[in-house]
Amino acid sequence: MTVRVRRVFEFTVSPSDVWEFIADPSKRADAISVVDTYEVDNSLNTNDDNVPTSATWEVALPIPLIDSTATVDTEDVERDPPTHVKFVGKSSMMNVTGEHTIERNETGDITRLINEFVVDGRVPGVERYFKRNLDDELDNLESALRQSFK
């Protein structure tokens, strides 16, 4: 089973403020509660703006029979600054794809962040966990974004 979630956040800040947060792999990882630790690769896989595009997450899912963390190697696979970033994370437990698109509303006073996530579990219980908790993780992402604008 695959879990898919799409959520749209609206902010009264500039698109560049949203991009500064969402294009940064460390800020994205900080917002996810099940990421225990992470390491951003600052030496390899940088884009033209010299921004890191890959990170390794250590993820701890509270799933019975799984008592360790899973290493998830993430990499930005699409970047179109300052409007779009898509990353893919792969591990023995799951694959995750996250896509973030930034756009202005018709009047230009609201910046929208369109978030789409897909989680494919490879271990029993992973999809069930994310089906119950992915909305909460997106709430965490939205809260972290709003906090960064203060």
TrEMBL record:
InterPro entries: Polyketide_cyclase/dehydratase, START-like_dom_sf. Pfam families: Polyketide_cyc2. This is Polyketide cyclase / dehydrase and lipid transport. Gene3D superfamilies: 3.30.530.20. SUPFAM superfamilies: Bet v1-like. It comes from the Archaea.
